[in-house]
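Quick review question:
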């Protein structure tokens, strides 16, 4: 698997296997096991997905060594303080059954209860301090954020000793988020593409279907290739073995600049929601 290199020198495989909405138990265990069997070496989970135990079991039972797998989890909204964040990372380590994590993200910048008086700023600073401490102790190999817009990043920069290495945001054809991506690049933050298939919304798009047919590829493959050519790190989710496998076959073709631009502009698919307005 090809890899990007984060600003701290840690390498991160260019595709990750997404696990949102894969229920804890046999479905999570089987899909992650199959993904590891067919070549994924990067798994994206989160405390709020509720599947860390099965993800960890699939990793433990796989033929891969721990150091050959890149494992990400995320701290959820009710754990935004120094002490709670530490307890939360300890819980993730325990549930996943590992003694270090490759990447931990603050899942959401501004949980609803922390919006009054911009309490989220102090909460993120404290959460981040706990993450820096775990990073320096070697319990985490990289730290980052998710769903952070420019102003959330700027607020974090005011107190962070270590800059975030990743921002995981919605990036998909029709949602290239050029300004935010450019801001991330200026600060050496790798953009990870969540919902790279628009949580399925890409499959009904006529332009995407036409481009896929021209290359003899699937719609998923051209969406994921678009992501790679943008320099993003896509995190496709699937529980269907043939999709899990075919989503990896995106390294043997190139989209033209014209097709990249057409995919930038498609409409009607899922786009990044405004984190300042979500009801949680
Ligand atoms: N940080 C955040 O706030 C955040 C938010 C959303 C997502 N994420 C991360 O990003 C990952 C991916 O995003 P997502 O779960 O929204 O969805 P996605 O990967 O954009 O799309 C998944 C959907 O596409 C289908 N699919 C996948 N490959 C396919 C193929 N080759 N052909 C046809 N259908 C295919 C899946 O169905 P099957 O399962 O049946 O294949 C599923 O319905 C998540 O799992 C999670 O890890 C993070």
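Suggested answer, residue by residue:
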């Amino acid at each position: 698997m090809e890899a990007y290199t984060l600003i701290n020198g840690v390498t991160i495989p260019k595709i990750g296997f997404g696990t949102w909405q894969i229920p804890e138990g046999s479905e999570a265990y089987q899909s992650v096991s199959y993904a590891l069997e067919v070549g994924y070496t990067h798994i994206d989970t989160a405390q709020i997905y509720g599947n860390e135990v099965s993800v960890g079991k699939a990793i433990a039972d796989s033929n891969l060594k721990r150091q050959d797998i890149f494992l990400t989890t995320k701290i959820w909204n009710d754990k935004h303080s120094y002490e709670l964040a530490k307890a939360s990372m300890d819980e993730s380590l325990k549930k996943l059954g590992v003694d270090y994590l490759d990447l931990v993200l603050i899942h959401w910048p501004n949980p609803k209860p922390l919006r009054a008086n911009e309490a989220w700023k102090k909460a993120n600073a404290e959460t981040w301090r706990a993450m820096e401490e775990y990073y320096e102790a070697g319990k985490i190999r990289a730290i980052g954020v998710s769903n952070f817009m420019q102003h959330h990043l700027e607020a974090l920069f005011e107190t962070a000793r270590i800059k975030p290495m990743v921002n995981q945001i919605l990036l998909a054809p029709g949602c290239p988020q050029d300004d935010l991506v450019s801001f991330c690049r200026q600060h050496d933050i790798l953009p990870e593409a969540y919902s790279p298939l628009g949580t399925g919304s890409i499959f009904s798009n006529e332009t995407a279907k036409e481009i896929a047919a021209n290359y003899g590829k699937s719609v998923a493959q051209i969406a994921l290739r678009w992501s790679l050519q943008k320099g993003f790190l896509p995190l496709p989710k699937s529980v269907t073995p043939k999709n899990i496998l075919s989503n990896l076959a995106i390294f043997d073709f190139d989209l033209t600049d014209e097709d990249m631009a057409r995919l930038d502009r498609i409409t009607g698919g899922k786009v990044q929601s405004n984190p300042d307005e979500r009801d949680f």
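Why it works: The mean pLDDT is 98. The pocket of NAP is lined by residues 18-21, 44, 107, 146-147, 168, 194-200, 203, 218, 220, 235-240, 243, 246-247 (CB under 6 Å).
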